[in-house]
Amino acid sequence: MLCLMVLYGLIVSLVRYRSINQTLVNEFIIDVLAWPVVFILIQNLFKNLSILKTFRKITMCGVVLIVGITAINLFNLNSLEVNSAIGGGTYCVAVLPLVYFFFSKKVGNFFTIIVMILIMISTKRSSFLALLLGIFVYYISDAIVQKTSRKKLNKMLSLMLMVVIVSVVGLYLINTSDIEIFQRFTSEDTTLSGRTVLWGNILIDYGSQGFGEKLFGNGMHAVKYKFNPYGLGWYAHNSFIETLYDYGVIGLVALIVFVIFIIKKTVNMNIKKRQLAPVMSSTIPPLLFYAVASYFFFFFQTILFYSFIWSLCIAVEEKVYLKQQLNTHKICCNKEQRNTYIKPENLARKGKP
């Protein structure tokens, strides 16, 4: 499906853009081609899951680097003034599922707290909500996949207590503090920082186009280059509207089908009580929030992380499930095949979150 989506985007762009320059070629490779390739390759790469040990080390280095750089960018070290409008917080939210995948709950909770602080400092409302709901959904899923009713009840009670504490602290900070992100939530801005006006203008322009443009779109990054909002070369700040304008109704349907595919995979993992269901579940709120209020599918720095973790979870769960089936039905396999699989409890050195 992803191969067809990329091929379709390439054909539409070649037809709509009469002249192709190096910038368009580079952006196609980075923004359109990269994340589907990652999604496809990762599933094939992890045929032997022993490679997870190597990626575990790389992940820790990468997370520390991303969080560290974001923290440095958020603060002017000379005056300790905060720089708002920081995209690094988005990357921090994106790498958290990888932390949940590879490391213990203690490590995951530590980085979650650090990222939460950075997001609050950055004043990014969409990232704050994506992170908060991502954590909530993670713990809901963690309760669902428990094998016994007692463990499930304990998890749910712990979650309810956490929600109460967070709600009380949040309401107190909103009413008494001058923290900018809370002030932005209580402001009278009804346009989502001008997003709704931009979306309306793009849809009006789209509605005035011919049948061909409506069905097939105007080509890659047409919002940025052809519509060119306010002469600033902005994106639509909404992946669905961006896709509709760039790739038409066909492209929008394809994107929605992919989103449904990811959500369906996540739901199935929870129903079957798969070990990695909480990790997959934690990606759904950021997927929806960033797709509706930001670039997401058109911003490779963000979508690459999610493409990686989706593919990784799906690949690992398929291998673990196959191992369980072999054991359950006593299907014989040779030594090489047995080495291909890995026990669920050994996915991370100190246990899964």
Radius of gyration: 22 Å
> Strand percentage, roughly?
under 5%
Unreliable stretches: 77-86, 329-345, 348-353
Mind summarizing the main beta sheet? 2 strands, antiparallel
Could you tell me the mean pLDDT? 82
Helix/strand/pairing class, anyone?
mainly alpha
Order of helices and strands: HHHEEHHHHHHHHHHHHH
Instruction: Name the overall outline.
Output: globular
Count the DSSP helices: 16
What does this structure look like?
With 353 residues, the protein is mainly α. It is built from 16 helices and two strands. A hairpin with a 4-residue loop joins strand 1 (75-76) and strand 2 (81-82). Helix 4 packs antiparallel against helix 5 (105-122) and helix 6 packs antiparallel against helix 14 (284-293). The protein is globular. The two termini are 31 Å apart. Mean pLDDT is 82; it is low at 77-86, 329-345 and 348-353.
